[in-house]
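Progress against Task 2.4 (sequence-to-structure conversion) is shown through the following example record, which the project officer requested during the mid-term review.
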Amino acid sequence: REAKPQEKKQITLMVTGHRVIPSWVKDELARVVTKLRSKYDIVKAISGMAWGTDMLFAEEAMKQGLYLHCYLACQGQQRRWTDENRKAKFRSLVTAADEVHQVVPGLWKDNSCYIKRDQAMVDDSTFAIVVFNGIVDKEKPSGTCTTKGMLDKKKVPYVLIDTKNRKTTIV
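Structure tokens generated for the chain above:
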């Protein structure tokens, strides 16, 4: 009797992470995406397009030939950025993306649009990468900490890239 080839499970991969990250994270992010691609059939990559982790992931996803879906919190989410190079990189990635989802209609009013964007990303993902420094501020949690909580609540599996301890684990 012939053994059937093992089917790969199709997954949608999202990322959440801090804006300011150590330089080694770029290579680790690429390594994790490559490893996940070899194990799973990744259909699309979802990025919230914040500068830092999100945009690094978007670049890596495109470099590895994944379908990039940008989830924008609101119209002009990059307008408050002062760095023109970041704005140009943002425009370039959004223009090259396979799909762009504006989660909250209209211009930025308050930070609730980012929480709604992050929840939409979690709802549409089957796997995630979390780039997190381990700091939990209960009074004013970071977007990454909040999104990690959403992933935990929905029981979406993720790879944790711990920037404080320079350690990567599957959660």
